Amino acid sequence: MEKNCWEFKKCGREPGGKNVSELGVCPAAIEIRADGIHHGKNGGRCCWSLVGTFCEGKVQGTFAQKFKDCINCDFYELVTQEEKNMLTGIEVNKKIKKNI
User: Fold this and answer.
1) Which of 66, 67, 94, 95 has the least CB density, counted as fewest CB within 10 Å?
2) Domain segments of the chain: what residues?
3) In this predicted structure, what is the pLDDT of residue 100?
4) pTM of the complete model
């Protein structure tokens, strides 16, 4: 399995992580409906599609609000290079909604 965002960014917001008590658990780390997308655990390889992820020292907003920043992220770039069948944010969100 490839690296998830919390492993790559070392944010410490995964369950049991060093920053959970201060910043809370990241939605990407616990979004089980996204498990397996881009070969990640939970939402760990589609964090740019999820509301409430933490980047640049602050909680991010909706996909539409944050994607312009996410496309410049080194982790997003890594996933786009590693994935042959990269899903768009809209496709990721459709898969998540389908798994409700």
Assistant:
1) 94
2) 5-93
3) 67
4) 0.88
